[in-house]
Amino acid sequence: MAKLTTFTINEKDRLIKIISENSSKYGDKLIQFMELNHLNGLRNATVPQLQNFVAKCALEKQIEEKIF
Asked: Could you read off the pLDDT of 25-55 as tens digits, one per residue?
């Protein structure tokens, strides 16, 4: 049986807030996250999905800063 890692709701909320704060006023990053993970809303998002997306966005941001 697979071991499930439990996270607090606060961690999920914190990660959603990070994505939201880095989105346009139309929530472009939140929409991108939901489309990438085939979600209809944030309720079904998992902490690992959110962590991966935040890490991916941070990496992309660093690469863009180095290029320009």
From this structure: 999 999 999 999 999 999 999 999 999 999 9
Q: What DSSP character marks residue 26?
A: T
Q: Is residue 4 one of the residues assigned to a domain?
A: no
Close Cβ partners of 47 (under 8 Å, ≥ 6 residues apart):
7, 11, 12, 15
* pTM exceeds 0.70 for this model: yes
d(CA 63, CA 60): 5
Give the closest residue to 39 by CA, choosing from 62, 19, 10: 19
Domain interval for residue 60: 9-67
Q: Which residues have CB under 8 Å from 45's CB, separation 6+?
A: 12, 16, 33, 34, 37, 39
